[in-house]
Design goal:
With about 120 residues, the protein is mainly alpha-helical. The chain has six helices and no strands. Helix content is about 70%, strand content about 0%. The protein starts with a helix and ends with a helix.
Length: about 120
């Protein structure tokens, strides 16, 4: 019932870990990632569109962009370490997020979403 909200919230936590080291550090305690780096741009996408997905606002567009981001992450960082073995190359979360977000592209926001409130007006 709350698949979209939980997925979006979990994804926002990736951004907060990158920028504010909350709830953990993703940089090994070296401070937050630079905003202009590839990880920083990814963090901005995760934060903005993860919040939109959690709220159910522009759900299909947000989910499409987040799915694409995870596909790029897999092919850019994980696939070179062994394309057909996501468990071994560390890409299992990227693949799961990619297909979860792709599901929301087609399924839409669901019952509890701001998209529904806007559509009624």
């Amino acid at each position: 019932m709350y698949k979209r909200q939980v997925s979006g919230y979990a994804f926002v936590l990736h951004a907060t870990a990158k920028f504010w080291e909350f709830p953990m550090s993703m940089t090994g305690g070296n401070g937050s990632v630079e905003l202009t780096s590839l990880m920083g741009i990814g963090g901005v996408i995760e934060l903005v569109f993860g919040i939109l997905l959690t709220l159910g606002l522009f759900t299909r567009v947000s989910a499409f962009l987040l799915s694409g981001q995870m596909a790029v992450a897999y092919f850019m960082f994980h696939a070179p370490k062994g394309f057909f073995f996501p468990l071994m190359n560390g890409g299992e979360p990227a693949i799961l997020y990619c297909f979860i977000f792709l599901y929301f592209v087609f399924a839409g926001a669901g019952a509890f979403a701001l998209d529904n409130k806007i559509a009624k007006k």
